Amino acid sequence: RETREGRTDTNSLFLSNTAELYANVSAFLNAGSSIATQETGQKNEATTYSYGIGLAPVKTLTVTLSATDQDTTQTGGGLPETSIVSRRQDATAAYMPFSTLYLTAGIGRVSQDTLRNTIQNYGVNWSPFPGGALQFTVAYSENLSDQDNSIVRTTQPNVRWTISRWASANASYIASESISNLGRTTTTVVAINFRAII
């Protein structure tokens, strides 16, 4: 990419592998490397590995356990060399007791040098009418940081109505709360959209 400040080059190579080990048991292993050179002469080299296993003990339930390791090195550009090591472990589950109800839950642990974060996610997708003309979803997430003892909670219900092939309406509400050593902050956003093709 050419800009007035100079040229930016990015090269990457990633490989993905999946295998069906047993009935309802699968595994995956991905690996990749990327090199990016900024117009300032700074070079970022990153190596990423991700691996995990998927389980389906019953037809309505799937469980995934995964981990991702990434090593990043920054050199050049008149700056001292730095190295960052990131690790992440995740456990997720999806459950569909009925064809109109879909439940998800997940927990992840992220570490980068001395920083530790815990992420929790929960979701509900409900389509009360056949064909999915009206869909109601609720997403809830928590981000817990050990660095400043902060907790960020986000709740997002959403309603989508497909009126016809040419028209749809969507209403969403986002409520976010952040609590840390510095205090408490709350944010709310309401959005209503109507789309029609004429």
Structural account:
- The structure is a single chain.
- The protein is globular and about 60 Å long.
- The chain has strands at 2-3, 6-7, 9-22, 25-37, 43-58, 61-75, 82-98, 101-112, 115-126, 134-145, 150-162, 167-180, 183-196.
- β6 (61-75) and β7 form a beta hairpin.
- The two termini are 39 Å apart.
- The mean pLDDT is 88.
- The chain has 198 residues and is mainly β.
- 0% of the residues lie in helices and 79% in strands.
- The strands form two sheets. The protein has an eleven-stranded antiparallel beta sheet, with no helix packed on it. A two-stranded antiparallel ribbon has the order 1-2.
Question: Which labels suit this protein?
Answer:
198 residues; mainly beta; 11-stranded antiparallel sheet; two-stranded antiparallel sheet; 13 strands; 0% helix; 79% strand
